[in-house]
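Many introductory courses stop at the sequence. We go one step further.
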Amino acid sequence: MKPKNIPVAEDASNEHRARLLQAMAHVAALQGLASTSIAAVVAEAGVSKRTFYEHFPDKDACFLELYRAASASALRTLRESVQPERPWQDQVEHALGAYLGHLSAGPQLIRMLFVEIHQLGSAGALVRREVMQHLADYMLETINTQDTVLTPTMAMAAVGGIHELVLQAIERGEAAQLERLTPSASAVVRLLAGAPHAFVKKKNGPQKRAI
């Protein structure tokens, strides 16, 4: 079965690229990235190796583009779930539920992406942080519409906490039930959104505003 949540090509010029990403998702989800070969990917996509190299310099580059595409698809679901007329706390919970539901719709793919990205060293870390920054920016845009209640530092902390919750669920074999994390993920955001207004007392010194 083809993995879900990978955007399809919007025009003919992108068709081969989209097919290669779909093929990478399918093969790597079944075999793991380490066991995935370019030969298997192009066979699944129905294109030549020459076509593969016209789009990607190597297997890792194709995987990283897949990670970006899958993450962008999930972020679109998150943004489309925002209900501006509701309090931000309700918006966040509703949107996170939709986001986690989107991820759980393709459990094999999500399990592979969340785990394998850590195997790609600095390149993987860079793309992972890029994706996490997009999620943190979304939180800031959604929550700070009237007052600044969430700082960039706390937004990134919230994203990191939610990612760890997802990883933990994946490790328990619960990738298809990620929506169950919605209450906990929402609580993380609400708690961290309160942090900017808290003051911490420095030892032997004046109070300092939390960042």
